[in-house]
Amino acid sequence: MATKRLGFIVRSLPYKTEASRLAMTHAIASQTVEIYLEDGDMVEPVVCFIGDGVLNCLKSQQAMKHYGITSLEQHVKNGLLLDLKIMICKEDIEKLGIKEDSLIMDAEDIGGETKAQIVPYSEIQKEMDSVDHLLFC
Amino acid sequence: MKLGVFMSDFRTGSDIIDRLNAEKLGIIFVGNGIYHATVKENGKTSNVLDKSATFYALTEDLESRGFSSANLDSRVKPVTYSDVVDLIFNDYEKIIWI
Description:
The complex is a heterodimer.
Chain A: E1 3-10, H1 19-30, E2 42-49, H2 63-67, H3 72-81, E3 85-89, H4 90-95, E4 117-119, H5 121-130, E5 133-136
Parallel strand pairs in A: 1-2, 1-5, 2-3, 3-4
Helix pairs in contact in A: 1-3
Chain B: E1 2-7, H1 14-19, E2 24-29, H2 35-38, E3 54-58, H3 59-64, E4 76-79, H4 81-91, E5 94-97
Parallel strand pairs in B: 1-2, 1-5, 2-3, 3-4
């Protein structure tokens, strides 16, 4: 039995490019690869938002209304609903003047129990050190 | 020259903005450009807002990213797509996109 840990580190802004969306959808979808693995083998994704990437985590995104596409907010909530480990860099939200109550910290409205974590960059660095594969986008 | 500038990036383009001269300059924040009008980095507003210009931000792009007109810097006016069309046709002779 083995667990492969995948790290998705998002530093890109939402919407102009697909980088942050792809990180979220891949992280969410990565759990489904378990059906192709040996019994007992697992995949464990972690998503970390750093730099300008923390702006993906703002609440009240209205991408469906204006662009006709799902919002990154919804992707983050879907991730939390699936118990994805989601970390948001503390120093970067402070640098950009973002308060915790502006951020998507849970998915309780859709039945999720897992919460996002605001952590110092050093914690995110530890995640990067510990994962088996790293996508930095 | 009456110049309208669409600014759609947050981290690039400020150097070009610094060099632009126009009798009337309008800077329209669209896409990721709206962060210039909403985010204070280390407590400071974007340098772009120090330019002598009239500033606008597209509300659709603000709202898509989780902001509202209430989050806008006081120097920036919220505009809809329809307003932007009016700006292009009525207020600015030339338009560039950076």
